Amino acid sequence: MHNYGILEFSALRRCHVHCPLCTVSGHLLYTTTAMDPQEIEELKKQWAIEQLELQQKAIFEDHHLSFHTSPPGISAQPNEDEAPNYDDPTVHNEDPKAFTVSGLRYIGGLDISFMAPEGNSVESKDVPGHNASDPNRPDAYAVITVIEYPSLSLVHSITHPIRLTAPYIPSFLSYRETPAYLELISTLRENLQKAGKEHEFPQVILVDGNGQMHVREAGVATAVGVQANVPTIGVAKTYHPPTLHDNEAHDSHWRLTQKGMKQKSREVLKRPGDYLGVLNANRDKYVGVTLRSATSANFLYVSPGHRVSLVQAIRLVMALSKFRIPEPIRLADRLGRDAAAAVTDKKAGQCDED
User: Fold this and answer.
1) Of 51, 247, 316, 318, which is least packed with CB atoms within 10 Å of its CB?
2) Which controlled-vocabulary keywords does the entry list (predicted)?
3) Cα torsion 30, 31, 36, 38: sign
């Protein structure tokens, strides 16, 4: 495992092109100056435009992959002549014993473990950001892992301590995490090239977060995939309804709340491999699934990131899971939490493994 000095992802107040973001070596950088509420709203509007542009570049089907599964999967999408059933979902199943994975050898995982604010034992993505009281204390640890298939053993990992200078804003998480992930991917590629092991670069990367299952179909897994030009899959532990309007979050329908989705999933998803489709904001197609990956009572929310189809994403998550969380992300989570625990001198929790 490689460790590096603290990386701080920041940017000038304005770039020289058209927005508060700029690009250096293909990596998005953040604004550091404190912004008032009006400026934040303007930034959110600009980010929303950029996410829609990103979505147009994303490929949510199998594209130039060096592996495949067989037999061909049945699409979770509804037939062209019928609308998705919003109220009574159809349950599908992908049994790992019913399909084979061919040509797959190396898989990556990306995860960020956030440091609990000083004086608080609870870790959260909603970290306030740069810790001015202790310049040597990172806000989080970003980790990339590479595992080998089918053994699921860890072969490479890199851990970066990072500082966060962008605020946590729902549906814009990619602007906070993508730079760290791109830096890890770049570092991994360079390390493997120097070692003469370019063939061990991941054929697909699982990202802790959403991909297409996002209000603008541009979650962090999609941002990473498009910008790094690598196949990616979004694997989220928490359900975020891909709704169009904020007031929809207060709707009583089970699809529009975390509690409702969890309750419905517990009612209908009984076997490992069972899943139900998650509809996009327009409610006319599926952009992801709620998946029971193991015997755990908790579920995963899986979606294509880039260059991977929904069915392929489901199958790979199932094939790569010993426990609830697929191994590439589970191991990245563990390494990040261990690094955070070493700084805080207290034991960090682990991903659910039941």
Assistant:
1) 247
2) Cytoplasm, Endonuclease, Hydrolase, Nuclease
3) negative
Q: Which amino acid is at 140?
A: A
Q: Which residues have C-beta within 8 Å of that of residue 131, sequence separation ≥ 6?
A: 118, 137, 138, 139, 163
- The answer to whether 131 touches 119, Cβ cutoff 8 Å, is no
Residue with tokens 């435009």: 49
Parallel, antiparallel or unpaired: strands 204-208 and 232-236: parallel
Sign (positive or negative) of CA dihedral 181, 186, 187, 188: positive
CA distances from 7 to 111, 130, 139, 241 (A): 16, 11, 10, 32
Say which residue, 297 or 335, is predicted with more confidence.
335
DSSP at 31: B
H helices of 69-194, where? 174-194
Asked whether 323 and 99 are in contact (CB, 8 A), the reply is no
Q: C-alpha 205: how far from its chain's center?
A: 10
CATH number for the domain formed by residue range(s) 2-77+97-344: 3.30.2170.10
Kind and range of the H or E run holding 51 = helix 37-57
DSSP at 11: B
AA letter at 274: D
User: Could you tell me which of 187, 135, 183 has the C-alpha nearest to residue 1?
Assistant: 187
pTM for this structure?
A: 0.86
153 by Cβ neighbours in 10 Å (0-12 / 13-18 / 19+) ranks as: exposed
pLDDT confidence of residue 282: 84
Cβ(302)–Cβ(317) under 8 Å?
Answer: yes
Structure confidence by residue, pLDDT tens digits, 156-209: 999 999 998 888 888 999 999 999 999 999 999 999 999 999 999 999 999 999
Contact 63, 226 (CB under 8 A): no
- Domain assignments of the chain as residue spans, ordered by start: 2-77+97-344
Contact 305, 221 (CB under 8 A): yes
